[in-house]
Amino acid sequence: MKIYELDDTRYVTALSADMEPALTVPDGAVVRVKTQDCYMNNLRAEDDPRGPAPGEAVGCNPATGPIYVTGVEPGDTLQVDVLTIETGDYASMRISSRGGLMRDRVTRPIMRCVPLTGGEAELGGVRFALDPMIGVIGVAPAEGSIDTETPGAHGGNMDTRLITEGSTLYLPVRRPGGLLALGDVHALMGDGEVCICGLECPAEVTLSVRVLHGVQEPWPMLRDREGGMSVLASAQTLDQACKLAADGMLDYLRARTDVDENEIILLMSLLTHLEVSQVVDPLVTARCRLTGWDVCFA
Amino acid sequence: MKIYELDDTRYVTALSADMEPALTVPDGAVVRVKTQDCYMNNLRAEDDPRGPAPGEAVGCNPATGPIYVTGVEPGDTLQVDVLTIETGDYASMRISSRGGLMRDRVTRPIMRCVPLTGGEAELGGVRFALDPMIGVIGVAPAEGSIDTETPGAHGGNMDTRLITEGSTLYLPVRRPGGLLALGDVHALMGDGEVCICGLECPAEVTLSVRVLHGVQEPWPMLRDREGGMSVLASAQTLDQACKLAADGMLDYLRARTDVDENEIILLMSLLTHLEVSQVVDPLVTARCRLTGWDVCFA
Q1: What CATH number was assigned to the domain covering residues A3-218?
Q2: Where are the domains of chain A?
């Protein structure tokens, strides 16, 4: 089987309706995508074991792509199966009093290089297991341009911990070819991403793309590796994002089951979970996650 | 070993500084507490298999208690180990357009009786496993009175899915004896409790109480059965509750570890999760949950 390749020198810092494709692949293609970390691989602590930075720019969240998928049109869904995420050997983190939910508690800015070895890392004397996930992944919006710091209905900087190996993302397509781009891999991140970064690292992501014709939801949806199905909604506040995600889940279940809509509401109070993806980007992202009731996207 | 008993006829509908104890127990006591459901066991659907309601009042969230624990004083913590939660044979649910996150989507009010059999239940043709948890559990506030619909620093109606068998709750004591009360057991509830109720059921809860002298956190904390440790904070909005919970976790970790406070902030972005308990009570409840770093309360 042919595996398409895309290098991390082909990236965007905004998802735009008029992006030029960096790669064109057919429906069903497997693509291996190299990604830079969110700092363009240029963040360096003092005495950094990686040596001097290869460039100067820091912090524009580059997303490798865009990838044009032949045959996908507005109104379709692009199904993205995340097959593998291989991180580099080092991750970077930084905090300051200028960003993040804890910015008022930061007393000293930190830039830190964290070695990633054997699926583990250590920080402040605490050792923990890694669980790599993709921070930025999305398609072109219907019009205009959305920078890669911002999440939305097109995907983008959703910083959702559950976008791991073994998960499947359903992205609503608004432009011919979809124009998929991704980056901002984290070797580990907690729900919320409270300090504004995870373990930011370059990576190689292998994914397959599949066109689902004539089916679309207003928000990205995710089938996670545990079998949960989530609506991923972004808004100004968590309260708004949670309501959008819950409404999206109700509509999803109404369209795909024979259960009365009011009984779906009862079931949602038992089987769906409002969860936080991130609270530190220009819009916050929440998810409504269904468990214990298997309702397939298509 | 003596097991103390408290019947569900001894209940309060507000947690008050001046409550009269229903039971007094020593430090270390095991107590078996019967609880009514949140509707005072009086909600009845048409042709309800339980027969007519035993009373008339519906929906005041009765909490059995209060239990006075000898030797616990303001400034201490009451550690409550939840040993068992045995539900009754039936649960009740109701929805209307008057309450809950989905109230704008309810097209027909429902009152429903759901049989609980063999650890499972069925609703709308969907069968699922039960996972009983305690909706209301708290102590007396320093002054005044807080109704049992409302959560806060005293605990109360936190509707936190993780308060299950095998979990340990740490409640900050503000009045002599603590004055513990609990009720509003759910046979199952999702994070958010989006329709405003879970599987509401009468129950028998067995718990042990232990006094931790001279140690206290501003919010209730929970060690869940998976080993996670959460700060449970309530506020007007989810964004506010999440920030309060995260600040509480930072203070908790600063007080109990030698790790630099800025490195704790880095670690929190990796190892803590902002999670939603409920969004439907007079204040909403969020938690900041730490995993993969074992930091004991006392």
Answers
A1: 2.60.120.580
A2: 3-218
